[in-house]
Specification:
It contains 3 helices and 5 strands; from the N terminus they run E-E-H-E-E-E-H-H. 23% of the residues lie in helices and 12% in strands. The protein is α+β, with helices and mostly antiparallel strands. It has helices spanning 48-57, 101-120, 189-207, and strands at residues 2-3, 22-26, 64-68, 77-85, 91-96.
C-alpha cells in the first residue's frame, strides 16, 4: 500500500523549509526466517528470552517507511580518484555525497506523517527510526545513484542531449540513471527503460540514416 500525497509537488510546501518529498508505503517481503526477526525494544540479542520474543513477534509486526527524493547539490559530485586505480592504472570514479538540510527536513516531515499513521493503528508498541547523521552506504536503504552524465538542452550544462547522445562524441549514446541530475521519490528504473527505448528509436530512425549530432548545440 502506497500513499503518494506527500511525493514531489503533490502537497503544499508553504513554510516547511524544503522542496521535494516522497511516498509513504507499507510493504511485505514475506516472512523470511533469517531476515524477519522483529523483536520489542530491550530484547536480548541471544538466548531463551530472545527466542521467545522472536516467536511471539513473528507475523505480529509490520513496518511502514518513507522513500524520499534527493535534490542536486553543489557539494555532491563525481570525480576521478587521485589515489585508487583499476587494473590498468586508470583512476577510479569517486563519489562525494551527503545529505543536506533539505533532505533532513523532508525526511522528518515524512516521518511525522508515518508516526501519525502508526499511532492510528493502535500498536502495542512502535519504534520510530528518523534519518540522522551523515550518509552511510553500509545499511541497506534502497539507494539509487543518479548523475554523472546528465541530459540537457545544451553542452555547457549537460553531458548528453535529449536522445542521450554525447554532445562531444555523436557516435556515443549513454543511457542509465546517470542521465538524471537527481533522484525523485520513486525508483528511476521505469524512466531509465523509457529513455532507453527513446534513445534506441532515435538511433534506428535518425542516426543510422544520417550519422551525426541529432541536436544542434
Amino acid at each position: 500500500m502506497v500513499i503518494d500525497e506527500f511525493n514531489g509537488d503533490n502537497f503544499d510546501h508553504t513554510g516547511l523549509g524544503f522542496i521535494g518529498g516522497g511516498y509513504l508505503a507499507q510493504m511485505q517481503t514475506n516472512g523470511r526466517p533469517i531476515e524477519s526477526q522483529p523483536t520489542p525494544e530491550g530484547t536480548p540479542s541471544w538466548g531463551a528470552d530472545y527466542k521467545r520474543a522472536v516467536r511471539e513477534s513473528y507475523n505480529h509486526s509490520t513496518s511502514i517507511f518513507a522513500h524520499g527524493a534527493v535534490m542536486s547539490h553543489r557539494g555532491n559530485y563525481l570525480d576521478l580518484d587521485p589515489t585508487y586505480t583499476d587494473a590498468y592504472g586508470r583512476p577510479l570514479l569517486r563519489m562525494t555525497f551527503d545529505f543536506t538540510d533539505n533532505e533532513y527536513r523532508m525526511s522528518n516531515y515524512l516521518t511525522d506523517r508515518l508516526v501519525e499513521i502508526a499511532r492510528a493503528m493502535n500498536p502495542r508498541e512502535m519504534k520510530v527510526n528518523r534519518r540522522k547523521g551523515p550518509y552511510s552506504i553500509v545499511p541497506y536503504q534502497s539507494t539509487h545513484n543518479t548523475g554523472g552524465h546528465i541530459m540537457g538542452d545544451n553542452p555547457r550544462e549537460s553531458v548528453t542531449n535529449r536522445y542521450n547522445q554525447s554532445w562531444d562524441l555523436p557516435n556515443l549514446f549513454v543511457t542509465g540513471a546517470g542521465n538524471f541530475p537527481q533522484n525523485p521519490g520513486y525508483n528511476p528504473t521505469g524512466t531509465v527503460a523509457a529513455l532507453a527505448y527513446h534513445t534506441a528509436q532515435a538511433i534506428r530512425t535518425q542516426y543510422l540514416r544520417n550519422p551525426g549530432p541529432l541536436v544542434q548545440a
